[in-house]
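Question (not urgent): is this output format expected?
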Amino acid sequence: MNNRWLVPVAVILLLAGLVGFVVVTVTGAVQESDSREYKIVIPAGTGDRIAAGETVDIIPDEIHLKLGKQDILVIENHDSTGHRISDFWVGAGETLRQEFHTPAVYHGECTVHQHAQIQIIITQ
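Got this back:
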């Protein structure tokens, strides 16, 4: 290969790599900012309060999440008791992060809701 082409080719490759890096970095930043978390926090002592007959109202009857916004359901359980929220079990001291990829309706038992039922509705 002729040496006079070596420097221009190296510069072009370097610039192409730099442009690729910038595009990937900016795209990743945009994707992260588009997502949002719907967070449920179960406080310590919730299981004891429910066992004592107290009405605990931590979450609504329905939770609506959107795929287009890349919503993520986050359930933090600070209680010493595990809890079920629809199809999801969150053990004592655990955190659940649930992403959704298709529209769906989850309807089921909820151990931290006053009516013991909840719907999680995932739409486009």
